Amino acid sequence: MNGPYTDGQSPSFEEKVGLLDERSLSSDSESDNGVIDLDSHLPLMKWVAYLLSPIGFLRSLHWRASVIRFVWFFIPSFLQGRQMREQIRPSKIHPTAYLDGMRGLAALFVFFCHYTYQGFSIAFAWGFDNTNYQFMKLPIIRLWYSGPASVSIFFVISGYALSYRPIKLIRSRNTKEFSNAMASTVFRRFIRLFAPTTISTFVIFCLIRLGFYELTRDFAKDKTYHRNVVEPHPARFANGWNQLCDWIWATFNMIHVFGWEEQGGRNPYDVHLWTIPIEYRCSLYLFLVIVGTARLRTTWRYMTLLTVMGVTYRKSRWELLMFFFGMALAEWDHIRAAHVSHAVLPISEKQAKPRRNILGQIFWNLVCILGLYLLSFPDDGWGKTPGWVYLSTWIPEWWVGAKFRFWQGIGAVVFIIGVSRSSLFKRFFNSGVVQYFGKISYALYLMHGPVMHVIGYHWENLAWSITGVDGEWYTVGWVLGACFCVPSVIWCADIFWRAVDIPTVKFAKWLESKVVIKED
């Protein structure tokens, strides 16, 4: 994202928002400062001596610097000094960087959901059936472990990010650059989504064959500790070849674009990746709508999009509807020039502006709170839960999808609209810590499952062996385990981000540059 790009290689907005910052890590030349180049300084006779002496030859190598770089790579990026901190949160951030931070927290909350639901029932909200009066189940408070609500936010942001630049080019009537940008986005989308998942599940395959999953297999299915949802480990085949064939088929099966089955393409090696086939399928539909409406005037493009959204809504395709909402919001931001610097206002207008700004900010902060409340719609038991009974009657009877997706989806859209106008919420999502989670969001989503099973279960087992599982001590042990499991997941996600996520984007760009038709 730094430096000039050719038309065919311009960075898509998807890569700027919520995926990663593609600036390269420290180069070898920067890392080797102070290391003497023996090739240019040692006399010929000394090189002959080194060739005759293997030990001397090894001493002549730059292995110390290589080892240091290798070890240093495993240090979390936020501890690696100013250069990496600048990569995480540049001094000048993109106007829509708040979406990056929002997606990062959503990924973190999905992890919290999968850590929490194994020990506690989280589908029911505060007051369900005159029970569940715990503080953590109150609306908005419960969002920190609400995975389904976070998924709705994922899909709206993906629709926005994938649409933003194409719509900008459409509105500027730059037909040539639009066609290049769309071709590039479509070509790289598959690699962007499935290359990291292939690598992450292959790592799981290797860990299974090496026996690491066997160390916690009994713990994973022990109802003494996992009292609610049991996430069994992937099966370990007796034959390694059969296991490899099974992994290959599971990886191939994730490319699920020809059906709408519930969690179609689910990968048994990491059951949390069921959203990735949906992301890809909905992306293709979104690209089709963008291209199909590219030559329409703004009014007719909006009318066409609203018609498509109406059909999608009637068909209960909530996930695709979220993508289309993202496209609609992206175009609306372009219409209102949300991310364009405005000219200096006259003095008279400046004097009247502060009062309007204060009232406007109060209004949009309230819109954000409304969105958070709707996102808190319970996954189950809404008909017997205070605060949700009336809203549940508004869910159409013909809605064949999961009922809770209806209001959670609306809440995601309302919240993102509110945040786009709220300086308070934007400031929060643009903060350094939140932006960091935005950078590692995809890596965090891919890594939290295997790390939780291979490393996290050891921490939980150790914690409960100290606290016991009787009464409130069960919760104490759960919290103690989280104190070690959460940092472990973040650390591994940070490594995966730098080792796989960033190189994947670079590889997709490199591959595209090698196979596209060169312009004259």
UniProtKB/TrEMBL annotation:
Domain Acyltransferase: start-end pairs: 97-493
Organism of provenance: Thelonectria olida
TM region(s), chain numbering: 105-128, 143-163, 190-212, 278-296, 358-378, 398-419, 440-459, 479-500
Keyword Lipoprotein: no
Keyword Electron transport: no
Protein name: Acyltransferase family-domain-containing protein
Pfam families: Acyl_transf_3
The organism's taxonomic lineage, starting at the top: Eukaryota, Fungi, Dikarya, Ascomycota, Pezizomycotina
Single GO MF descriptor: acyltransferase activity, transferring groups other than amino-acyl groups
Keywords in alphabetical order: Acyltransferase, Membrane, Transferase, Transmembrane, Transmembrane helix
Coiled coil: none
